Amino acid sequence: MLSLVPILVLIVLITCCVAVFGNATLDGASQVSLLVASAVSALVGHFSKRLTWENLEKEITDKVASCTPAIIILLLIGAIGGTWMVSGIVPTMIYYGMQIIRPEVFLVSSSILCALVSLMIGSSWTTVATIGLALMGIGKAHGFDDGWIAGSIITGAYFGDKLSPLSDTTVLASSVSGTPLFTHIRYMLFTTVPTFCISLLIFLIAGFTMNVSGHGNVSEFMDGLQRTFIISPWLLVVPVLTGVMIARRWPSMVVLFLAILLAAIVGLLVQPELVRSISGVSGSSGISGLYKGMMQVCYSSTNIETGMPMLNELVRTSGMGGMMPTIWLIICAQTFGGVLTATGQLQDLMRYVLRLVKGTASLVASTVGTALFCNIALADQYLSIMLSSQIFKDTYRDRGYEPRLLSRSCEDGATVTSVLVPWNTCGLTQSTVLGVATLTYLPYCFFNYLSPLMSIFIASIGWKIKKLEISN
């Protein structure tokens, strides 16, 4: 029972942090809570098992070192988010995507549009807080209920977030389980695409059967994009080339770096005045302004004035610096996991859970259930992914499963269900941003609560379950 003490301490601390800090919990309060829980775990381990500090320090160092690739990728993600936005690539996608919205297909269109945006920028939070807000207004003009509108937005945003190579949760799930990033993404397609298609079918049927009226006016939003950026279908060449590199299975770091480089070149050529305005250097021919502006886009936050507050939020970027809270969280969480492992407390907790595991389906169900429990108890999807992965990692390996099954199960259970918990950082954020209570939109987030069930179903029929190759 002593092994539960650090977990209970962390639950209490995270609960207090969410209550006090709200949306700002990830800015530092969660990280401090993890370090305090790590100290409690170390004390319990020292007095119950007489462990030395050297053993604890070595395990912590090994855990943190294992996340070095993920940290580098997160920094690249920050840079690509800035360059793809300022170069006009993401605005172009939004511009053309919004033209397909019609009342009858609004729900399914909003899901698809949010999925595309989230897939390109790798952030469900940014998608919901920007294009999601625009779609809320359009949906209300069409006469749809708030729950249906929010459900379609969240469904698309979390689908894109889950499959995007730019998403920090996707990178995190793949790295902590030891799965190459694009291998992890490709394997998630088997559970994610069918679930998303089912959700889209429900939204499509609902759109044609509901009695709605009105025509949302998106022209102002599109005009704002045109005033701020040069919109051209030629800009879509960069994401197409990125997709080709991904399809050819190039290393994720190489793909991300080249995507940043291509977008930076396009930005300098196509949006030079915008880049100069970011740098603050005046003059139409200042090379230093272009250099400084593009460097700031990569490493720092950018605020572009479009004349529309909602559009300002959409085009705002955070660069590499915006990834620091997540990196800080990863280091602190790995510290907590290292102490739990060194003291044997993680193994004790695992034994309790693994008593229920008999076959593939029960193993996946236990992983998904653990991730969901962590979302409820710890109120954060990052902690849920890391803790559930740490608990089951050795079990998947010992039973001969490839780590991609673990990484997929963690994302199916943690990433998409976090927004369904009212006190979770995701649920708290999205309900606040959209102005719709979590329990109001929950019934309509079909993708989010069908994903864990699909993961268990796919495991139960044994479809595409990969086993490790044993060399003689």
Give me a quick take on this structure.
This protein is an all-alpha fold and 472 residues long. It has helices spanning 4-21, 29-49, 53-66, 68-86, 89-98, 106-121, 124-142, 146-163, 168-177, 181-209, 219-228, 237-247, 252-270, 272-279, 287-299, 309-315, 324-342, 345-354, 360-378, 381-398, 403-413, 425-434, 438-441, 446-461.
Structure description:
The chain has 472 residues and is mainly α. It is 74% helix and 0% strand. It has 24 helices and no strands. It has helices at residues 4-21, 29-49, 53-66, 68-86, 89-98, 106-121, 124-142, 146-163, 168-177, 181-209, 219-228, 237-247, 252-270, 272-279, 287-299, 309-315, 324-342, 345-354, 360-378, 381-398, 403-413, 425-434, 438-441, 446-461. Helix 10 (181-209) packs parallel to helix 21 (403-413). It is globular. The two termini are 41 Å apart.
Low-confidence stretches: none
Give Rg in angstroms.
22 Å
Shape: globular
What is the terminal separation in angstroms?
41 Å
Please count the beta strands (DSSP E, at least 2 residues each).
0
Please tell me the overall pLDDT. 83
In percent terms, what proportion of residues is strand?
Answer: under 5%
Task: Tell me the number of helical segments per DSSP (H or I, 4 or more residues long).
Answer: 24
- Biggest beta sheet attributes: none
Structural class: mainly alpha
SSE succession: HHHHHHHHHHHHHHHHHHHHHHHH
**Percent in helix:** over 70%
